[in-house]
Design a protein that fits this description.
There is one protein chain. This protein is α/β, with parallel strands linked by helices and about 400 residues long. It folds into two domains: about 200 residues, Glycogen Phosphorylase B (Rossmann fold); about 190 residues, Rossmann fold (3-Layer(aba) Sandwich), CATH 3.40.50.2000. It has 14 helices and 13 strands. α8 packs parallel to α9 and α8 crosses α12. The two termini are about 15 Å apart.
C-alpha cells in the first residue's frame, strides 16, 4: 500500500496553536512525520486552521451544551466525539488520542467500518483527582475511555509502564492488541539555546542557579509536593514555575498560598502562568541547573525529554514511564514514590516524598559539574533513542498490520 492509498484520520483534542500538554505535543510532531508517509487529516477541537499542513478539520461543542456545572465539560466532549465520528468518513483508519477523542475514534470505526487505533497517554481510573475537576463528568470521561479502548483494534501505549497499567485497568482488553511505541522529541528544535534575552524578559536572573518546573496546575503533576520541598531547597537558587491552566479555582488558590508563603520566608519563586512560546521555553530549559518533575502519575513525560534534549539534568519521580526516559545516575536522579492504596493518588508519606526532591535537587545544585554531565548524557540519549521519524515509521507499520487483519 503506497502513501496515496492509505488515508488516516488522526483524532485529538489538542492541536497547534491550542497545545497545553504532552498529548498535544505528541500529536503535533507525530502528524508532521505521518504526513511524509500517509495521507493524514487531523480532526481536532477549536477554530478552523485554514492552510494547515497536514490538513485539519476542527470541531466546536454543541452550543446547546452550555452551563458552568463541571459535568458539562464531559458532555461537550461527547458532542465533539459524535461530530468527529461522522467526519472520519472516507478514511481507511481512525487513530484517536486521549479520552477526549477515543470515543470518536471508536464510533467512527463502527459507522464507517474501518479499524480504530487508540493511543493512551494516561488512564482515567488512575487519575482520581479529576473527580474534583469534573464532578459527575468523571464517570462520563471514564465511560468514553473504556468504550474507546475496549473496542479498539489496536492500542499504542507510550511506555511499558503504561501498557501494564492499561491491562490492569481494563482486563477486557486483549494484551495482544497493546503495543509500546514511546513518545518522541524533535532534537533539532529542542537544542540548547545559551542566549539570555527571554530569561531577562521573564524576570529570571541568568547569573543564579535555576530549578525549573513546567506543567499544568493539576494534582497529577505534583506541584504542591514540589512547593513543600521548596522550603528546603538551597535559597541561592531560583525556583521558576511555568505552570498554568489550573484544574480548579481551589487548586489555583492553594498553589498561590504556598508560593506566597515561600516568598514571605525569603525563598525566591517566580511563577510564570502564561503558555510560553517554544523558543522562550527552550531557553529556560537550557539555563536550568535542574529540571524537576514531581508527578505522582506520569505514563512517560515528554517534558523530561525536552529538558534532556536541552542538556539539562532531570530530577523526577520514580513512577510510571519516567524511568524509561530518565536513567538514574546517567541522565538524572529519581525520587521514590509509594502511593496510598485508597485510590486518592497521594503519597503514603507526603513529607518524605517532598524531602526526597529537596535532597536530590540540592545534590545537583551543590555539584554543577555533575549536573552538567547528566545534562549532556541526557541529550545524547534523547537524540539516539527518541527521534520522531522512527516513531512514525513504527506507527505506520502498525496501521498496515491492523488494516491487513481487518
Amino acid at each position: 500500500m503506497s502513501r496515496r492509498d492509505l488515508s488516516v484520520a488522526l483524532l485529538t483534542r489538542e492541536y497547534p496553536p491550542d497545545v497545553y500538554g504532552g498529548a498535544g505535543v505528541h500529536v503535533e510532531y507525530l502528524a508532521k512525520e505521518l504526513d511524509r508517509l500517509v495521507d493524514v487529516t487531523v480532526h481536532c477541537w477549536g477554530a478552523p486552521r485554514p492552510g494547515a499542513k497536514p490538513k485539519v478539520v476542527a470541531y466546536e461543542a454543541w452550543a446547546e451544551l452550555a452551563g458552568s456545572e463541571p459535568y458539562i465539560a464531559a458532555l461537550r466532549t461527547m458532542s465533539i466525539d459524535l461530530a468527529m465520528a461522522a467526519g472520519t468518513k472516507g478514511a481507511d483508519l481512525a487513530h484517536s488520542h486521549t479520552w477526549y477523542a477515543n470515543l470518536g475514534g471508536h464510533l467512527g470505526g463502527l459507522v464507517h467500518e474501518i479499524p480504530h487505533v487508540a493511543t493512551v497517554h494516561s488512564l482515567e481510573p488512575l487519575r482520581p483527582w479529576k473527580a474534583e475537576q469534573l464532578g459527575g463528568g468523571y464517570s462520563v470521561s471514564s465511560f468514553c475511555e473504556r468504550s474507546g479502548l475496549e473496542g479498539a483494534d489496536a492500542i499504542i501505549a507510550v511506555s511499558a509502564a503504561m501498557r501494564r497499567d492499561l491491562i490492569n485497568c481494563y482486563p477486557a482488553v486483549d494484551p495482544g492488541r497493546v503495543i509500546v511505541i514511546h513518545n518522541g522529541i524533535d532534537t533539532d528544535e529542542f537544542t540548547p539555546d545559551h542566549g539570555t534575552d527571554a530569561l531577562v524578559r521573564l524576570g529570571v536572573d541568568p547569573d543564579r542557579p535555576v530549578v525549573l518546573f513546567v506543567g499544568r496546575v493539576t494534582r497529577q503533576k505534583g506541584l504542591p509536593h514540589l512547593l513543600e520541598a521548596a522550603a528546603d531547597i538551597d535559597p541561592g537558587a531560583q525556583l521558576v514555575l511555568c505552570a498554568g491552566m489550573p484544574d480548579t479555582p481551589e487548586l489555583e488558590a492553594e498553589i498561590l498560598a504556598r508560593v506566597e508563603a515561600l516568598r514571605a520566608a525569603g525563598h525566591p519563586v517566580l511563577w510564570i502562568e502564561e503558555m510560553l512560546p517554544r523558543p522562550d521555553l527552550i531557553q529556560l530549559l537550557t539555563h536550568a541547573t535542574v529540571f524537576v518533575c514531581p508527578s505522582v502519575y506520569e505514563p512517560l513525560g515528554i517534558v523530561n525529554l525536552e529538558a534532556m534534549a536541552c542538556e539539562t539534568a532531570v530530577v523526577a519521580t520514580h513512577t510510571g514511564g519516567i524511568p524509561e526516559v530518565v536513567e538514574e545516575g546517567v541522565t538524572g536522579l529519581l525520587v521514590p514514590l509509594e502511593l496510598r492504596d485508597d485510590g486518592s493518588g497521594e503519597p503514603v508519606d507526603p513529607a518524605e516524598f517532598a524531602a526526597g526532591f529537596s535532597e536530590r535537587i540540592n545534590e545537583l545544585l551543590a555539584d554543577p559539574a555533575e549536573a552538567e554531565r547528566l545534562g549532556k548524557a541526557g541529550r545524547e540519549r534523547a537524540v539516539a533513542e527518541f527521534g520522531w521519524s522512527a516513531i512514525a515509521e513504527r506507527v505506520v507499520d502498525l496501521y498496515r498490520r491492523v488494516i491487513a487483519a481487518a
